[in-house]
Amino acid sequence: MAIVAAAFGGARNEVGHPFRDVAIVGVFNTKQARVLEGYDSQSIALEAALGAIADAGLEPRDIDGVVGGIASNFLYQSRIGPAWRSMSPLGIPAVIEGAMAIACGLANTVLIATGEAGSYRQHASTAPWTRPTNEFVAAYGMFTAAEFALMARRHMHMYGTTPESMAHVAATIRNNGHVNPQAVYFGRGPFTADDVLNSRMVADPFHLLDCAMTSEGGTALVLTHADRAGDLAKTPVHLLGGGTDHYGPSYQHPPVWDLGGVRRPDLIAGHVGRRAAEEAFASAGLGPSDVDVCEFYDPFSFELIRQFEAYGFCAEGEGGDYVMSGVIEPGGRHPITTDGGTMSFSHGGASVQLFQRVIRGVQQLRGECVSSQVANAEVAMCTGGGAGALFTDVLLLGKDRP
Amino acid sequence: MSLLSPQVGDIPLPDPGPISAPYWQGCREGVLRFQRCLDCGAPTHTPALLCAACASMNLEWVDSSGRGEIYSWTRVWRPVTPAFVTPYVPIIVTMDEGWSILSNLVGCEDVAVAIGQLVEVEFHHSGGPDDIWLPYFHPKG
Fold first, then answer.
1. Where is the ChsH2 C-terminal OB-fold domain (chain B) (predicted)?
2. CB-CB contact of A145 with A334 (8 Å)
């Protein structure tokens, strides 16, 4: 987004919105499960790819751009080369890159697909994607829950944020999954905050039910030129704005809340995503009060509290009270993570879940969710990452062409 | 409650590289080292090629006092691998010289941890092919 902003920013009034010519026209989640028997990562990703293409009402031969290492396999198997290709694997930045390829004329129709199955079978250890090896963290027993817990604990110390407010977030998201027939943990609730607080401790202050699950699945999107989108099967969804904030490699350095940069000392790691959200809102001409659906990434319950502060929905330190004020539940002003997220819908491997907030945002704006559909949703805010990983990405989706 | 101790199982040990070798050599000698910029004086950790404050490549290795205070903590009950004995307590320590380090708290009960607790480094011989001595921290004062 920064590159697009630099290229278009000074002349935006003349050339229009950078993503004016882009639309998301196909989305698809395969079956998601704790274990997908009979699949490997390639086969589940290919199933997702074909699903998203069919959802758009397109044929494989319509694809002339692919994003992700697994999408490249689709490129070969379907013999649609030569085509534009990106290696970007991780969620919203990959979607933005696919949109940039269309906006810049490098491709007309871009497939983004990923999937994972069979890579986590020895559950004595935490999932491989939760424990990158590094000489300054691995010997201290670090994994994602501990990294995010160090951020949460600092916030509790500064602002008095409580485990009860975190548990309320987790219960809300898990209840969205409880009523979603497509969720891995469909029918496993309902949950109260007390259920979360009474589950076994993983990494203080996070109980088991404050944390994402591990599962398997595939997911895919198709983007095309907005001029063509109106002729396709589903209501096109547009990218109103996006941004990515990164501080460095995840899980290799102490996750310090106050970590700042020399260029913008006011933007600390505890607020990662703030700059991305500001850019996204500026591109869209919108603010937090315009967001109808908050498809926020939910690796751990505290992360939702932090994101509401980082994106300007509430003041710093007030995220705990904010999530307790009735806004995040179905029917609230800013309902969160409406399919059940990584806690209850799926965490399909290392990268699948980083796309699934975008998938759900598209489904909400189309009005096709089989559970927790937000009535007349016009704007969805989709996110990925989190403070414990030192990055957060933001994408604003809307029904109107920008 | 349980007394926190250095891990003695088959945990993943550091594989020092050319940039970090002086750090791990210091640990072998019982000294916690960090990098300081010869141009602007700012401290840097983890071992780097550039100063975190001014991007100078003019860094020197300096001995730390080994003392600091706990900046944040967590207490882990679900071990990352079965080699880790639980509970263990990952901490971020703000060192007296103004840099941050990730470690584990030892030498006290697991329930005694708190932000602001003063701590001091100690070294545990973990061995392995690189003869690693891991820095841990215990309460001090």
1. 61-124
2. no
Residue given tokens 């990494």 in the structure block: A203
Best mutation target, B45, B80, B93, to test chain A (most A CBs within 10 A): B80
Nearest CA in chain B to A201: B77
- Beta-strand relationship, B59-63 and B33-37: antiparallel
Contacts of B88 in chain A (CB under 8 A): 140-141
Q: Inter-chain contact B72–A145, Cβ cutoff 8 Å?
A: no
Minimum-distance CB partner of B80 among A136, A142, A154 = A142
Which chain B residues contact residue A135 at CB under 8 A? 14-17, 20
Task: Give residue-wise pLDDT tens across range A114-153.
Answer: 999 998 888 889 988 888 788 999 999 999 999 999 999 9
Of B72, B78, B134, the CB nearest to A153: B72
- CB atoms B71 and A154 under 8 Å: yes
| CA-based torsion, B90, A206, A256, B50: positive or negative | positive
Domains delineated in chain A:
2-116 (3.40.47.10)
The structural domains of chain B, with segments of one domain joined by +, span 21-139
Examine the pLDDT at B53 and tell me if it is beyond 50.
Answer: yes
pLDDT level of residue A255 (50, 70, 90 thresholds)? very high
What CATH topology corresponds to B21-139?
Answer: OB fold (Dihydrolipoamide Acetyltransferase, E2P) (2.40.50)
Q: A350 to chain B, minimum CA–CA distance in Å?
A: 16
On whether ipTM exceeds 0.85, the answer is yes
Residue of A nearest to B84 (CA): A141
How far is Cα A318 from Cα A359, in angstroms, rounded to an integer?
A: 29
Contact B88 A141 (CB under 8 A): yes
